[in-house]
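Re: your question from the hallway

Yes, I did run it. Sequences:
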Amino acid sequence: MISLKNINKVYTLRDGPTIAALNDVDLEIGDGEFLVIIGRSGSGKTTLLNVAAGLTKPSSGTVLVDGTDVWSLSDKEQSRLRNRKLGFVFQFPSLIPVLSALENVMLPVSLGDRNGHDGHNGDGGRAKAVELLETVGLGDRLASFPRQMSAGQQQRVVIARALMNEPELLFADEPSSDLDEQTEVEIMDLFADIHARTGVSIMMVTHASQLIKYGTRAVEMSAGRLRELG
Amino acid sequence: MKFKPLVILALRGISGSPFRSWLIGFCALVIAGFALSTVLVMQGARNSLDLTLTRLGADILVVPQGAEEQTQGALLMGQAVKEFMPMSKLAEIAAVPGVEKASPQLYLESLADAPCCSVANMFMVAYDPDTDFTLGPWLTQKIGRELTLGEAVGGKYVFVPEGEENIELYGYILSLESNLEPTGTNLDNSIFITFDTAREMARLSQHNAVTPLVMPEDSASSVLVKVAPGYDPKAVAVDIFNRVEGITPIQAPEMFGSFRNQVSGVLRAMLLVLGLALGLSLLLIGFVFSIAVNERRRQIGVLRALGATRGAVIVSLLTEATILATAGAVVGVVLAAVGIYLFRDLLTTSLGFFVFPSPGLVVGLVFAGLALAIVCVAIAAAIPALRISRQEPAVSMRE
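Structure:
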């Protein structure tokens, strides 16, 4: 599914010094895997996720998605790849504030380019979006705006949005870090349920070791290097 | 990439930041409104001068030497003229090779508070129907004949007082036969009578008027010259100057030169202010848009992660800018056009010469004003839009 080889990512600070966020990282994520990457703040796990998702270019190394080198693609091709094959759940509130829950979930279809066919029976993905919101327990909040929802509810909408185009791989960057314990469990249970039902591969980064149990595989990130956990 | 979601995002973005939206719209209003106002005033002044030249119908205006400014001031703004030339000059001028027609005019009086005029000063001009080639053709078209004794034609602002049947000037009854088309100059305040009527009026005013009309004997204020086909007006003007003493010929294109310069001066100042307003507006729009883009940095990063291309990001932001610019510019051009139209008489008084441009031209200028504002706002917004579109999504989403 995704293969990262010899990945290095170096940031140059404004006043000169450089920071090596990733040091010669190799990582493979296979079909149907639920990979949990744990690490402390500043360990490089978010950088790794961003590199794997094509959201930032590595300083060196290759990122292959289904055998295609992501950074050999044009911006349009990369955008299409992200739109069709990848889904995202970010740590920060990532709903578009001026769009309703339903409109946010439909966004991947709106932004997509399917040669004139939206792949959703011509309704712009509305029926699918409604179904997804019902799946995440927000069938009665279609017209609500993000400011009218709790953090947990917003994160559920984000998850629904991430699944809109039936991605092959879901990226989750600390999806529950801003949530209370109970809501965190609900969100993680939702991830587990989605993984079990759809077989979507998941790459989740977190600092919470108790979330390892949700994955099929776990690795630890420390000082820009990866270590498999047994 | 579908366009509709981008438009929806743009519209929602506008309503989500009302103050910012109003500010950008206002800048567009200023750009469009000011640009249109400047051009309308410019064009109105030019129209007026050109119409006056057309009304004069002459290729060359011959005036007493030293009275160039006075004469042009009289025609444009009704200023009194004190210089005259002997009528004998008419024959000398007519004899110059290349002069097809020559006709004298006498600027008689600048009457204050004349009852038959809707402006403060009415200007009386005597002309010779036997040699005239400017009013005559127009009279033939309008009333089918020349003026006779006791008859007059007036400019736009000359009328028969309510309750009266005729105009009385210096105790003499004049029949107003028709009104000329407006020129936006003093010619609109003018009343034209034949030399015979003027002499009769002057004679009778000795007994009938409180202040008699003083008509210089055998004199003219100017001679209008029509150049024969095949002759160069400039060469004929030079020839007139060389052959006839005590006069100055002014070619039509150079007529009102000092006034054109005055107008040019005013308009240069207006253009300078327009340029400053444009520059400041662009800076403000660029600044405001930069803030808007920076505030939405994370949002844009998310859109990119979800599959929006760089082009889509730019289109969305520019759509927002264009919608705001269009709304502001529409208000601006409407205010400018309506304002200039409503205050056109005040502009005539202030500038001395102004005619509201034709509807066709105004429509064209309105669209030009709209286009200018929209393009300017789009350019100002494009810079921050391009910058954010080039950022990696991860960089945009970074806290």
